[in-house]
């Protein structure tokens, strides 16, 4: 499987590292406007692959034509969120970046599945769709798996249980309007604590690091790549018939989205802000 990564920064390079270590790609291509950065990451990752005894072709370039016939392309390019900045404030500038990138992907890899990481995530899924003209089942946004993992950690901490066994998931928008669903027996205050901590998790990391999280987002993308390659269910931001994107449970395959798993919680997702903002993209 050939995987292209647009953006060789923290998230992009960690995606590549995990793909190599888990042997999920036969070829990886890094594309970045910073040619030296992409080349340096490529050389380091190539050495990593040798150390791990992986026979994977790894390249870097500024030339999108090198993406010809790739199976998956991940878009991480865009301006990262700064402390105190909302995801929505990023919308216009990142929509321009994602839009131009999507057009180039469509030109050279018209059969690829596109995974969006750039924030504000749900809006960027829409921007990719409008500019690539791809079928909706070929565009997925990384959010639900990340938010759900954060919720599991918060539930595990509160109840002193393993986060692996925590029965909790996050659907809806990748913002403060996310919806948390759990079968765990919780008081109203406990649920609110978990919700607040999950909503603020990304901002807290940004405050501490001075940049957005990258290890966990990269792992979430790789989980999606694995589901595409081997088949499996994940939570991701996907477009509906009204061109509104938010997190739902989906079944993935090499063809893209095979099925959206129905859930009553989707009916309670507040899409008003999404509809308002997408008109300005």
What can be said about this structure in brief?
This protein is of the alpha/beta class. The protein is built from eight helices and eleven strands.
What do these coordinates show?
The chain contains eight helices and eleven strands. It has helices at residues 10-21, 35-51, 91-108, 121-132, 144-159, 188-209, 215-230, 272-278; strands at residues 2-6, 27-31, 57-61, 72-75, 113-116, 139-141, 168-171, 179-182, 232-239, 245-253, 256-260. The strands form three sheets. The chain has a six-stranded parallel beta sheet with strand order 3-2-1-4-5-6, sandwiched between helices. α1 (10-21) runs parallel beside α2 (35-51) and α5 crosses α6. The mean pLDDT is 94.
Global outline? globular
N to C succession of SSEs: EHEHEEHEHEHEEHHEEEH
How would you classify the helix and strand content by structural class?
Answer: alpha/beta
What is the typical, i.e. mean, pLDDT? 94
Largest sheet: 6 strands, parallel
Low-confidence stretches: none
Head-to-tail CA distance between termini? 33 Å
Strand order within the widest sheet? 3-2-1-4-5-6
Question: How large is the radius of gyration?
Answer: 18 Å
Count of DSSP H/I helices: 8
Q: Provide the β-strand percentage band.
A: 15-25%
Residue share in helices?
A: 40-55%
> Based on DSSP secondary structure assignment, what is the total number of beta strands?
11
């Amino acid at each position: 499987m050939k995987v292209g990564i647009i953006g060789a920064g923290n998230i992009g390079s960690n995606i590549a590292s995990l793909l190599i270590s888990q042997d999920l790609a036969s070829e990886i291509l890094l594309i970045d406007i910073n040619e030296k950065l992409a080349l340096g990451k490529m050389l380091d990752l190539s050495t990593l692959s040798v150390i791990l005894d992986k026979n994977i072709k790894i390249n870097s370039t500024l030339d999108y034509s090198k993406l010809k016939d790739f199976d998956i392309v991940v878009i991480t390019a865009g301006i990262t969120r700064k402390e105190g900045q909302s995801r929505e404030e990023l919308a216009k500038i990142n929509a321009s970046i994602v839009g131009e990138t999507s057009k180039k992907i469509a030109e050279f890899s018209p059969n690829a599945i596109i995974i969006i990481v750039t924030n504000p995530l749900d809006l960027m899924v829409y921007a990719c769709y409008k500019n690539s003209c791809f079928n909706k089942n070929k565009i997925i946004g990384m959010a639900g798996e990340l938010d759900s993992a954060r919720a599991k950690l918060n539930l595990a901490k509160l109840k002193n249980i393993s986060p692996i066994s925590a029965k909790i998931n996050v659907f809806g928008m990748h913002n403060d309007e996310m919806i948390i669903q759990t079968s765990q027996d919780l008081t109203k205050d406990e649920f609110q604590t978990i919700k607040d901590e999950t909503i603020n998790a990304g901002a807290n990391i940004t405050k501490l690091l001075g940049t957005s999280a990258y290890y966990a987002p990269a792992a979430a993308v790789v989980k999606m790549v694995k589901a595409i390659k081997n088949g499996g269910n994940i939570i991701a931001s996907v477009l509906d018939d009204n061109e509104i994107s938010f997190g739902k449970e989906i079944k993935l395959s090499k063809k893209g989205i095979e099925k959206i798993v129905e859930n009553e919680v989707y009916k309670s997702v507040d899409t008003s802000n999404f509809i308002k903002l997408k008109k300005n993209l």
